[in-house]
Amino acid sequence: MLQHKHLLGLEGYPSKDIQTIIDTAFGFRKVLERPIKKVPSLQGKTVVNLFFEMSTRTRISFELAQKRMSADTVSFSAASSSLNKGESFKDTVQNIEAMKIDAVILRHPASGAPQHLTKFVDAIVINAGDGTHEHPTQAILDMMSLQEQFNSLEGLKVGIIGDISHSRVALSNIFGLTTMGADVMICGPSTLMPPHIEKLGVKVSYDMDEVVDWADAVNILRIQLERMDTGLYPSVREYRELFGLSVERIKRHSKDLVVMHPGPMNRGTEIDSAVADSDRAIILDQVLNGVASRMAILYLLLGGKMEEN
What angle, rounded to 10 degrees, do the helices at 168-179 and 136-150 form? Predict the structure, then answer.
């Protein structure tokens, strides 16, 4: 149903396929709103969740999506695996595939790991985040959430604010949104902005107020506090003053603004609690749409069957 066997990233991914995933996800969203939230779409399919990094939202979202569609699901933790005994990544995944699995969901700290995995296994590979490269399923749920709010992505003005250099969420959103015809403006400290990023077809700003004034929606990225020691920005207080999304900043522009955040949030740093908990924030909608969109991705890649009636 989709042009590519795997979902490794959104760079060069066809707009038709992105729209197909989003449209299918809205169908599964209806399933999640029913009293009995389960369909037999992937009955008999086996999916392995290979997470080499800590994760809460993405991992639970994928596991729930699999169970909602009646797939057999196995979760793998690198910390308790034979990798700690010296087994190679290749041997680990090939041993798992020998158990006749159908798909692998991979999160890995090394950029390019999902692409590398496709060389060793015949199973479908879905990238759940690789290093600072891409996080395609997050971008798809973000686009689904925006379409839910605005009906279309074409011509939509979306601001992405934060650590652009190290954000796989930012990169996948840039690829996905520009492919779907949205206008994207990125914003953050110059020390956290990749060189030549405008070549990806985005506007670049270092003024948060300019972005808020321009945008229909903003996606606020988590500031990785562990980078404080690297000197990439002076202090949490200064970051909040220059790039934090506060009620006061929004009020200055007297406009309706849809607010998004991929989580986890640093409240009081990149986003104030009053904004995160306001009616303008669709953060919890993103969480629900994350399950629905991952159901759609699994269904389309694994050739599942839609429920009759």
Answer: 50
